[in-house]
Amino acid sequence: MRVDIGGGVRLFVDSVGSALRPTADAMVPKPTLLCLHGGPGSDHASFRPYFDRFADSHHVLYVDHRGQGRSDGRRDSSGWDLDTWADDVVRLCDALEINRPAVLGLSFGGFVAIHYAARHPQHPSQVVLSSTLARRDTALSAARFAERGGETAAASYLRVYRDGDTSPEAWADYARLNLPLYNNHPSGFGPRRAWENHRVLQHFHRDFFTMDLRSDVALIEAPTLVLAGRDDPMTPPECSIEILSLLPEGVGRLEIVDGAGHGTHRDEPATTEKILRSFLMA
Description:
Blueprint: E1 2-4, E2 10-16, E3 20-22, E4 27-29, E5 32-36, E6 59-63, H1 82-96, E7 102-106, H2 108-119, E8 126-130, H3 138-161, H4 168-177, H5 198-210, H6 214-217, E9 224-229, H7 237-246, E10 252-257, H8 264-267, H9 269-280
Parallel strand pairs: 5-6, 5-7, 7-8, 8-9, 9-10
Antiparallel strand pairs: 1-2, 2-6, 3-4
Helix pairs in contact: 1-2, 3-4
């Protein structure tokens, strides 16, 4: 369904599970788990069906960011920025009358989640920052790609993320050489069924070069799980360690999953589920 969040913009939202749990005496509200996908320029497809399992404890909501997937704004670049995407979380929750959601951001969705939780610190009940970062470490990621795919993969990464080459040829090489290295499972990164908007990726690429969310991390007040894969070359675990160090005392919990790459649920689904359930039910 598409939800009108104001300003003539509708965000595509899909849900799994009921919002109310029936008991003998009442219909009891379930907590909401709102999932913010990676990209940018992708959609929520990479969450499905894995995160459906949490519908037993939560009302699970998948949303396509503005300009991405099936949401409005695919041609209007004026809303393709972290301020807008972060505030869209609040607009969506207002439209659906959702109170204090648990918000999970994966990769690019983690950038949005950090900025959202900093701008609206009282809004989320919990935050999960999965395979994400507060700022890029280009040299570190290049080294990790070299370890996993050799100097050709490192050169492909640097062509895009150091030299700023956004040509179709550069992205095609990156997709061929680097994306398969994100995970240990051969079909881990994807899926191919995502509705892509490559223009958003190219647009945000300029901001990504200078993005620094360290001051935002320090403003987060909600309990925050920082989740990383030990083998992730794109957002190496050192980036998650930095996020934990920047969170206020007592707010953060760090989990680094051995044998996992980018999006730990893709390589280590059982371990990731155990970690998430422990945090979400705390």
